[in-house]
UniProtKB/TrEMBL annotation:
Gene Ontology biological-process entries: fatty acid beta-oxidation using acyl-CoA dehydrogenase
UniProt xrefs under PANTHER family: ELECTRON TRANSFER FLAVOPROTEIN ALPHA (PTHR43153), ELECTRON TRANSFER FLAVOPROTEIN SUBUNIT ALPHA, MITOCHONDRIAL (PTHR43153:SF1)
Key words of the record: Electron transport, FAD, Flavoprotein, Transport
Name assigned to this protein: Electron transfer flavoprotein alpha/beta-subunit N-terminal domain-containing protein
Keyword Nucleus: no
SUPFAM superfamilies registered for this protein in UniProt: Adenine nucleotide alpha hydrolases-like, DHS-like NAD/FAD-binding domain
GO MF, any single term: flavin adenine dinucleotide binding
Length: 320
């Protein structure tokens, strides 16, 4: 028996959130005296693939099948299900993403597995298999008992730290048997809407609020984002006022982000905005009002005027 973990990449790199999933799978495997097996689909370098051992995988199944060059939910679910069967894995771990959301449900259906999404901690195995799940955009937790023999778990980004150790993994080529029915839906063409860093996947997000006073001042947000290789976001009123496009609006009614670093410039920190940012690892707030609610959620706060503070931040970021 083993715990299988699906490893996802973006832009030729294995995602940090997938490394977190490998760490999670490895910790779970230790709890049940078994090993974690990672499944990597895609043309990653040998170094990238074998490095998964450092994050806790004992074995890596490397699948380099051209038919899987696009992350289509059906064939990916089939490939993961076949790997689970091969490795005798009852529990399959995936890190949440828009792609994984589509894969995980299909995978659970294929395996006849119970599924819990958005899990934020290792399961409590003292009586059964109890998992803690984040609900209401991170405002509360729910505890689920997974009673099915097969289990699919998607974990939230930043819920479990990826710790690099000195372990090593054996690497094995894996070529799943895929059928035509797996490819009934195919992507014929993709068009890049923007060259900017994708907000939902960004490691760093620089976000602006009404404190920026108007779209003519957005160069402050953009320049800081560029200097840090970050994506740009905004509060809802900013997109309502058409200062920024709606797809940048972060919060309860907008995009939910989970970066390592969220920098909020001139945003008050209303609960509806916080609902979209509270799974960020580190939050930095710049606001001239020391009573702004965002400071309560911040790891670091600067009480100051964005028009004075941000140019200094840009200068410092450029010098990094
Ligand atoms: P403001 O509330 O106007 O705050 C501006 C901040 O900038 C203030 O804290 C001020 O001190 C500071 N400031 C001003 N000038 C400067 C300066 N020169 N330097 C530094 N700081 C300065 N909001 C969202 O963002 N996302 C959502 O998804 C969302 N969903 C909502 C859903 C519902 C049902 C409702 C009712 C509201 C929702 N809102 C959402 C709106 C939310 O309640 C707030 O009104 C909004 O987040 C406030 O945006 P803001 O902080 O940019 O503006």
């Amino acid at each position: 028996m083993s715990v299988l973990v699906f490893v996802e990449g973006a832009g030729g790199e294995i995602k940090k959130s997938s490394l977190e999933a490998v760490g999670y799978a490895s910790a779970l495997a230790k709890k049940i005296n078994t090993q974690a097996v990672a499944l990597v689909i895609g043309n990653y370098s040998d170094d990238q693939i074998s490095s998964l051992g450092k994050f806790g995988a004992s074995k890596v199944l490397s699948c380099k099948n051209d038919k899987l060059s696009q992350p289509l939910p059906m064939p990916y679910a089939s490939a993961i299900a076949e790997a689970a069967k091969k490795e005798n894995a009852d529990t399959i771990i995936l890190s949440r993403s828009s792609v994984v959301d589509a894969i995980a449900s299909r995978l659970a259906l294929k395996l006849g597995a119970g599924i819990v999404t958005n899990v934020v901690d290792l399961p409590d195995l003292s009586s059964g298999f109890k998992v803690k799940k984040s609900i209401y955009t991170g405002k509360a937790f729910a505890f689920y008992d997974l009673t099915s023999a097969k289990k699919v778990i998607t974990i939230s980004k930043n819920a479990y730290s990826a710790v690099e150790g000195s372990g090593s993994a054996t690497v094995e080529a894996f070529d799943p048997q895929l059928s035509d029915s797996d490819f009934k839906v195919q992507i014929k063409e993709t068009q890049k809407a923007t060259g900017d860093v994708l907000l939902t996947e960004a490691d760093i997000v620089v976000s602006g609020g009404r404190g920026l006073k108007g779209p003519e001042n957005w160069n402050l947000v953009i320049d800081l984002a560029k200097a840090l290789g970050a994506a740009t976001g905004c509060s809802k009123p900013v997109s309502d006022l058409d200062w920024r496009p709606h797809h940048e609006h972060v919060g309860q009614t907008g995009v939910k982000v989970s970066p390592n670093l969220y920098i909020a410039l001139g945003i008050s920190g209303a609960i509806q905005h916080l609902a979209g940012v509270n799974s960020s690892k580190v939050i930095v707030v710049v606001n001239k009002d020391p009573e702004a609610p965002f400071f309560k959620a911040a790891d670091y706060g600067i009480v100051g005027d964005v028009f004075e503070v941000v140019p200094k931040l840009i200068e410092a970021a450029k010098a990094l």
